[in-house]
Design a protein that fits this description.
Largest sheet: 5 strands, mixed
Radius of gyration: 28 Å
Low-confidence stretches: none
Strand content: 25-35%
Structural class: alpha+beta
Number of strands: 9
CATH class of the largest domain: Mainly Beta
CATH topology of the largest domain: Immunoglobulin-like
Distance between the termini: 102 Å
Order of helices and strands: HEEEHEEEHEEE
Amino acid sequence: MSAEIWAAIFAGIALFGSFGAWRTAFHAKQAAAALTAIEARRWHAEMTPTFNVTCAREWLGDTLGERAFLRIRFTGPPGLDELTIKVAVRDDWPDRKSVLTGGPTQEQIKAQVWGPCGFVHGVDGGSEDGRNAAPFSLLLGDGRQLALDRTVSPHWAIPADWHQRYDRAPLRLALHCTHGDDKPWTVHYEVPIDETKPV
């Protein structure tokens, strides 16, 4: 065989070897990325924030009447030193639809808090619909108290039936937590309401 043919063969072998090395490096990089993603998910799950959450209705006197207080204390894990938290009241079940002819509209259903309490509008940054409080920061071990009002029955419901259904129901919450550049967490709680004075 001529030198040109041998040169072409060696070039082909070298090219094949280079492709093999590239392919091995490519698969190694994919495996490393997959392992990194698994480790990130594991870390995120292990670092899910924990809280001590309680709620109690309290009688504030004949002038102020009754109000509920939600108390949230940031308890762990130790690797999270500070969180920014936004608390939202959740409905008793999601995606409720209007089923009655001439009943409430979908907008009215969405605007109603379907539970025992909502945040006080204007207090602690409570939204107008009572569903959210303004975000706040907590250091590990610290707590925060938020004011709640008894949910007002909607105009299409019989008030006595509404309050019989919801006054003793647990308060359903979603705590949306952020910490630096980490992926956010959402932690759900169902909190019984302690009655210091009967409603």
